[in-house]
Amino acid sequence: xxVPAAIDLSAYLAQQEKKSLLRFLTCGSVDDGKSTLIGRLLxxxxxxxxxxxxxxxxxxxxxxxxxGDIDFALLVDGLEAERxxxxxxxxxxxxxxxxxxxxxxxxxPGHEQYTRNMATGASNSxxxxxxxxxRKGVLTQTRRHAYIASLLGIRHVVLAVNKIDLVAFxxxxxxAIVAEFRDFAARLGFQSLVSIPISARFGxxxxxxxxxxxxxxxxxxxxxLETVDVETALADKPFRMPVQWxxxxxxxxxGYSGTIVGGRIRAGDSIVxxxxxxxxxxxxxxxxxxxxxxxxxxxxxxxxxxxxxxxxRGDLLASPTARPEVSDQFxxxxxxxxxxxxxxxxxxxxxxxxxxxxxxxxELKHKVDVNTxxxxxxxxxxxxxxxxxxxxAAQPIAFxxxxxxxxxxxxxxxxxxxxxxxAAGMIDFGLRRATNVHWQALDINKNARSxxxxxxxxxxxxxxxxxxxxxxxxxxxxxxxFAQGRHTYLLDGDNVRHGLNKDLGFTDADRVENIRRVAExxxxxxxxxxxxxxxxxxxxxxxxxxARDLLPPGEFIEVFVDTPLEVCxxxxxxxxxxxxxxxxxRNFTGIDSPYEPPENAEITLHTTEATPDQLAxxxxxxxxxxxxxx
Length: 630
Prior knowledge:
Elongation Factor Tu (Ef-tu), domain 3; single chain; 630 residues; seven-stranded antiparallel sheet; 27 strands; 29% helix
């Protein structure tokens, strides 16, 4: 009888569709049993096929760490390096379902080195299972993962005290660990915290309550996961939809496609483009399966509007009665994920939703001690450190606080040169100082000033090692231009440090701030119509790129004074290299601090092939050939 089977299948599919979905992660310190716990959940829930089980038994004999028993960790530790070392490196996602609920679980690594991967898993989870080895108790990494889970908006936590069998199922040990963790977690704002003693290897209190812990009166882990209420009610929040694609298949159709990340929308509802403020009404809600009367958070749709308004990828559509903030400065928590330290003032790319904009961290307010949650003073962030910072964006962006909406308040920072992700961030609030200050319209502008002087404004940015001859050549160029009646100004690295930058040292962070200030100053002089000569080592490409981006195309001229290190050390006019080599001077470029030579400088000067006067004349001729000077 095929008909009943078809009816049963339809009923089954309908039942599955109505089940709620819980996304959760397992985290904690290394070797606390996270992968083993997930493997045990899958095994005891009868969710493994026979071929999977056979492969697991085979792998357990080859890679297992449990003697002759099945090593359940191998179900999710799929990388060869993970199996060889017995650790989790990458985030492993597994889907499974019970009669009551569907689950997506992220198995995240415990090693501090892979904290960034743990944050990735937490960013999409609603509940965290934090494992603790009953023999070791609460560790630094336990606290770090709990704090990161809190930062990333997780409000429900299970404290799974694992390997309880290795402490003889001791109630005293369990209660001591729970008390210590609860004391720490009291400041993290978790909505629920359930503590369960478990043995992931043997299944105690994982699927069902264990007779070996008669003193425990709480739920088994799976029972709690099936019943915990983690509904975020995104559909009840204000409407938000980042535009991922402007859908224009023909001249008669223009739609705006994206996934709704908050609220609901109906045909006929008013919407507004958050950044520009332009308003319209929704004409249709289009999907592959036909038009909808209403769409809610989590659904991917295409909206057509009643009016032709300017909307592009990255714009945020919102409810006109509950608009998001729009600002170019905001405060945010940052989890630093890169080996190279975070440097305030350096430009990064921020990706928020479908929008990518250049930003810089203008100030690190404090770092966070993950053990005590104390606020610590600091200028930079290193790998896996968490800080609270002010961030400046090159243009205003629309956002909500991360606590209100994880999709419109969360972002990542990207290195502009390597394209690697260096940080994850959570916006707290906008800084009003940015939106209350507007550009003042001036009657006399840059063009008027430069025409009066009979020249074009430009910034000649001389970069090279100490002793390369930058200042000498820049000085000769200015003398030549001055003699020709040109209007110039020379900013020299040593001279500026006696005034504008006298508060800065020579750490990487201070070097970045040094160049940021000088670049802004050079921009003001160029706005006055001057030819500005900047002579700074400026060792980092990123900061020279930042200076270039401050000026219109063609006004920034990078001059690479290319002198080999050996020649600079032989010249050593100030005796600095000798002091650096003996340790008297630290963070000296070329010795114990790197120099990143330009890759595409407008002018490259080889000082071993010509005299300073000849090189200066080359620059003047270059300026004349491009009509910067007549």
